[in-house]
Amino acid sequence: MATGQWKCVSRQESDPTSSRDFLVPRPATGLSRAAAWLALLACMSTAHADLIDEGDRVMVEVGPYVYHRIDNSDHNQWPRLIGVEYETASHWLGGAASFRNSYYQNAAYIYAGKRWFIPSVNENLYIKLSAGLVYGYRKPYEDKLPVNHDGYGLGIVPALGYQIGRASVQLEFAGTDVVAITFGYDFWK
Predict the structure, then answer these.
(1) Domain containing residue 41
(2) What is the residue-level pLDDT of the chain in tens, covering all 189 positions?
């Protein structure tokens, strides 16, 4: 099999009680993705003086876990989310993330939004609201995203977060049944 190809593996080979097939990436695919992200970050650092103003930040985010309120054992709990988010000094933001959705399909979210701190409760506590284009909820799961056409849909994600210095942790609420935990780090300061 050539590098970069996918092999369809049946879970029945290892677990006869499972009927779901899934795609297994070759190890080289993961390494090439990591190399692409590092190259992107290196290119971005050369544009620092022209693009990033005082008070702006660029976050790298990872999402290691998702909790599904209904039937958590049958959904993907490990989304492998990785994303980049740019935020202005006035807390307007935009970003992109790639992940494996609840049904083991590759997905992406490109969004814009705003973050509001809540100093009356705690100066590090904030709420965030983002909305944008989601891709990846394809057949037979296209009905799991309320607004969806050929795998492209609308996503609205409220979040509650806590920031300490350059690091942050968030609880992101996708729909009424899913809570994702994400960690972010501002690598730009």
Answers:
(1) 1-51
(2) 444 444 444 444 444 444 444 444 444 455 556 656 666 665 555 455 566 778 899 999 999 999 998 877 779 999 999 999 999 999 999 999 999 999 999 999 999 999 999 999 999 999 999 999 999 999 998 888 888 888 999 999 999 999 999 999 999 998 888 999 999 999 876
Residues 95, 86: Cα–Cα separation, whole Å: 6
Q: Are 1 and 7 in contact (CB under 8 A)?
A: yes
pTM, full prediction: 0.73
Measured CA to CA, the distance from residue 124 to residue 102 in angstroms comes to 30
Residue 99 near residue 111, CB atoms below 8 Å: no
Tokens of 189: 């300061």
Based on the fold, state whether residues 47 and 59 are members of the same structural domain: no
Q: Are residues 181 and 100 in the same domain?
A: yes
Measured distance between the N- and C-terminal CA atoms of the chain, rounded to whole angstroms? 43
CB atoms within 10 A of CB 85: 23
Half-sphere exposure (Cβ direction) of 56: Cα atoms closer than 13 Å: 15
